[in-house]
Every structure is written in C-alpha cells, then in structure tokens.
Amino acid sequence: MFLSVFDMFKVGIGPSSSHTMGPMVAAARFLDMLRASPFAVHGLRASLHGSLAFTGVGHATDRATILGLAGFSPESYDAEKAEAALQQIRETQTLTPDGLPPLQFDPRADLTFDFGPNLPGHANGMILMATDTQGDVILQETYYSIGGGFVLTEAELADGQDTDEGAPVPYPFKTATEMLLLAKTSGKSIAEMKRANEVSRGGADKLNQGVARLWDVMNACIERGLTHDGILPGGLNVKRRAKGIHDALLAERGMNLTAPHTINDWMSVYAMAVNEENAAGGQVVTAPTNGAAGVVPAVIRYWLDHVPGASTSRIPDFLLTAAAIGGLVKFNASISGAEAGCQAEVGSASAMAAAGLCAVMGGTPEQVENAAEIALEHHLGMTCDPVKGLVQVPCIERNGLGAIKAVSAASLALRGDGTHLVPLDACIETMRQTGADMSEKYKETSLGGLAVNIPNC
Questions:
Q1: Which of 8, 12, 258, 301 is the most exposed place for a label (fewest CB within 10 A)?
Q2: Structural contact between residues 127 and 141, judged by C-beta atoms closer than 8 angstroms
Q3: Tens digit of each residue's pLDDT (9 = 90 or more) over 136-159
Q4: Domains of the chain by range and CATH?
C-alpha cells in the first residue's frame, strides 16, 4: 500500500474536500471521457446523491460541479474567474470547456439533488451524464468522492482502486505494526522510510519542492485568516474570530498577565484562521480533508512559534510522518465524514499532527505511533453534524480543539517509552467499526446533532 504525501495533502479550495474538491475533480474526469468519446455531445446533466445532496448547497457542491464541468480545477482555482464563469453559465445556459464544443447546461434544470437512498458505493455519490440533441443520455458515469479529494468511478471503487499498488517501494507497510517492525529492522525513522518511498516514485526534487509548497500554502492560509475579519458566507452570520483573538494575544504579550493555559488559545487561533478561510472558499491544503484542514498547520505553526529549538528545516519530517499515519487511517478505515463521522476527519488530522509533532521533537517510532493513537482514541465516536450544511459550526472550533489534543497527545507520548496498551491499529479498526455502526444522520447529512438543535436554522 502506498499513499503519497501529495495524496494526503492536496492544495485546493474550501469549504470541503469531499463535497467541493471531489465533485470538481469528478467533473474534470468526465470532461476527459467526453474528449475521448466518439459521440457527438450536445448537453450535460448531473445528479447529486446521499451526503452530496443533503449538504450540497452548504458545501458549495453545486457550484463545484458546474465549475468542474466548465473546466475549472481545485489546484489552479481562480475565484474571480469562477464567479464570472458562473454568471455567464446562468445567462447563456451553456458550458464551454476546452477541447469540446459548447454544451447546453441549465443549472436550474440540469443539476439535481436526489434526497433518496445513497448510491450503493459510498455516501458521496454523483452521476454525470452527456446528452444528444434530443436530450437522450448517450454517456454517463457514476463517481464517488471518498474523502480528502479522492474520487473513484463506480468500477474503480468495486475493483478496490482507492490505493496505489504501483511499483514497489523500499519500505511498504499497511499497518502500524508493519511500520514499526520496518523501522526497527532498518534503523530508520518513519519520516526517513516515507521519504525513501516518495523518492522511489517521484524523485527527490519533486518531493522537496512539493513539500515546500504545501507548507507555503498552509502558512499563507493561516496569515490570511489572522488578518481578515467580517461575516462568513452561507447565512448563519458566523463572525470571523481569528483576527480578533490573535490581535488580543499579541497585545497581551509582555504584560505578565497571561495565564499558562493561554497557549491553548494560540493553538486554536492558528487552526481557526485556516478553517475560517476554508469556510469562505479560500485556498487551503487538505490535511487530510478540508473540514479538518486547520489541525496540522496549526500544530506546525505552534511548534515553530512557541517551542524552543524548532526549525523550518524539519517541516518535511513533520509532514512525511503525518502522511504516513494518515495513509494508515485511510487504508484501514476512512477519512470521510460522510462515511465515518468527524472522527474520520478531525480525529485523523489530530492523529497525524500528534505524530508529526512527536517526530520533530525527537520521538522514537514507537512514541510517534503512541502519539497518533492517543489523539485518535480521544476523538472516537465524534459525529459530523454541520449546522445548515456549512463547514462552520462546529467545524471551525473543532479544529482548534483537535490541535490542542494533538499537542497533548505528543507530549504524553514523549513522557513515555512508546509502550502502551492500545495499539494504533486497534484504534483505527475501532474507528472503522464505530463509523459503520453510526446512524447515517450523524454522518455529514445535517439531519442530526447540532444541525437540528440550533434555533433559527
């Protein structure tokens, strides 16, 4: 099993990796299918199912699908161009993707939300269709957005193609137990093994440049979030708070009035800054999802700004270690809130961040595995219940608390020798089972939990 660091961390747009980025990626794949097809296509249609239907508007799934069919991609997304394109599509009822003739598409009639049962493969399903001049469907494909921006067709999902089984890598592992055994026999850290695997696939230059860009985008997202205020879009009238909290924290420095627990506010404000940007549709890095995008960068920023001896030169080790843990969770359970609740999103992110922090603070592979297990264990059972389908409440604060738990987990692990009762593999399997048993209304549908108990929503 090999999942690249660039699979676990992707540059994209908010507010959701599975509901925004995934549908946009699926639409792009469908356009490629049309370009290779011998059929004369006249128009397009799309239907959203399961969680993509229930929280689609709040997660901008409709916009993402339309823009994807118009040729936009998460990696190169330009907000101003996107708005102009959407306006033109509404006025002309026509899509003009590169390499294809103008295609008829009325957003009000050709994009539908199906609130019936989920499609069989996954809670995040969508069907894209091409029609002829008579409006008959001549080509269609079913896509599943399985979390973190990963997209599979119905056939790919059935074939189990959600992981890369390409060329062999030097240090292959599918479980934490295998990972620790390889570390022990090789004498290498988790980051060193992960680096060797990445280099064997893409080369050192690609890895170094790619990881540097990931942190640049993460940190830029934090900075934007710390300087922007106002009201987040979507109708809940949620006020951005990161800037105000950050300004207050800066003002308190040097006044000898700060309580020790104020360090938690620094961790939270970094995470909240990212997730406020995500909620506003800004550029973020999935880590491993958009809904959990604030945890990993917040813990890195906390480490750099507040921990003596921290160095930006170790950020690659942090991200590589975090990616290794994220890959184990995705392969053996899920990182999709629609599939397993928020334990799969913020819980996974907290485990990844705890592992990364433990690694750069000198933790052994056993301590790193322990840190990830502690963080994930104490997110087990967490539901995904976004109010009004928006990635705002409780998501923004939840990332802050996920970062705090990650730091606490790393610290506890570093106080021990790596031996502990509950293995990470057992914790991941417990998360998988819990997600399978969880009521569907608590898995990114906005049909339960906070989403139905907040007044005037």
A1: 258
A2: yes
A3: 999 999 999 999 999 999 999 998
A4: 17-158 (3.30.1330.90), 176-452 (1.10.4100)
CB burial readout 153-181, b (16+ within 10 A) else e = bbeebeeeebeeeeeebebebebbeebbe
Distance of alpha carbon 409 from alpha carbon 425, whole angstroms: 17
Q: Is 41 left (phi over 0), alpha (psi -120 to 50) or beta?
A: beta
- Distance between CA 140 and CA 108 in Å, rounded? 20
Q: Which residue has the tokens 């509901």?
A: 19
Q: How many helices (H) and strands (E) does the chain have?
A: 19, 9
Between the alpha carbon of residue 445 and those of residues 62, 335, 384, 426, 437, the distances in Å are 16, 16, 8, 28, 16
Written as one string, the DSSP assignment of 24-39 is: HHHHHHHHHHHHT--S
User: Greatest CA separation found in the chain?
Assistant: 75
DSSP H helical ranges for 1-112: 5-8, 22-35, 51-54, 61-69, 79-92, 107-110
Structure tokens at 229: 């205020």
264, HSE (Cβ side, Cα atoms, 13 Å): 10
- Give me 115's structure tokens: 């609130």
Question: For the residues 325-353, what does the mean pLDDT come to?
Answer: 97
pLDDT digits (tens, 9 = 90+) for 278-316: 999 999 999 999 999 999 999 999 999 999 999 999 999
AA identity, residue 26:
A
Centre a 10 Å sphere on the Cβ of residue 224 and count the other Cβ atoms it contains.
Answer: 19
